[in-house]
Amino acid sequence: MNAVTPRLTCAFLVSMAAVALGCVQGGGLSHSVVERRRGSRVETYEVAGLGLGAVADGYTFRNARFRFEFDVAFAGVPGYETEDARRRRGVEASEFLNGGYAFVRDIFGIEASKMLRVVIAPTVRGADDDAYTSTSWREIGDEGGMIEGSEESVMHFGREAFENRTALAHEMTHALLAAYRLPAWFSEGIATLVEVDYAESDRTDYADVTIEPIGLDENGRNVIQNWRGHGSDLPDRSSDTYGSAYAIVREIGRRYGPEVYPRFFQDLRATKAHLAGDGPSITVIVRTLSRVADTDVTPFFAEIAFDIPDV
Length: 311
Ligand SMILES: [Zn+2]
Description:
This protein has 311 residues and is α+β, with helices and mostly antiparallel strands.
């Protein structure tokens, strides 16, 4: 047999990045945040396409935007035993996620380029209240640049997390952000902002958080800059870290105006800076923010003790 050897003009690799949400179980968080919604740009969120079509197995349901995949183990879980019950759960989540989708689109100017996959199981990583979003993409060349549009995100929810609006909003934001491969402080700050401003999270008292560094490393750098990076001592998930990331993202919006984020993501799409290497570096982020805000944002990042090489 003659083997045909395909001539590859480029090498494809698959990288995995996972972003995770802290456990969302309640536990005595007493304050809800009253300070919300920057300006009044969006008052209500229209819900489109609530109907969910069932795929033949009775566990998979989809509409124009979402595909919900329930684990077959739900056959034995009260409230999820029947196809109708699972569909009702899906419609409920779809309604809320649709509103969150519109919120993210209006505040940050980003949208999904493909259907969003939602996988629900009785437990995830051993807990019914755990949730995370995984993203994979294809890369090209020696430098590891991402192939535009190759990202695939999957949201994973345990049963209790799936019934929790905070978790739904948080994870969907990660799915929408996946293409941009932002550092943890930035993506978690945005996901937490959606949690607080759209889902009205009471996971922690976000009204009290500040941009004051939560710690400095031996070089005097804010430890959050390298959160989940190589050598970071910060826990993967902690209220302090989510709160600090949220405060930074909120403050950038306050200082540079409601258009700063839509323009930031639009600029990335135009320059394709997010496709290079491991995603946008802090230098690229600061340069891009400065360009779209039409002002030098370096002093802000110096104030929060970020280390910014070569701006
Ligand atoms: Zn997260």
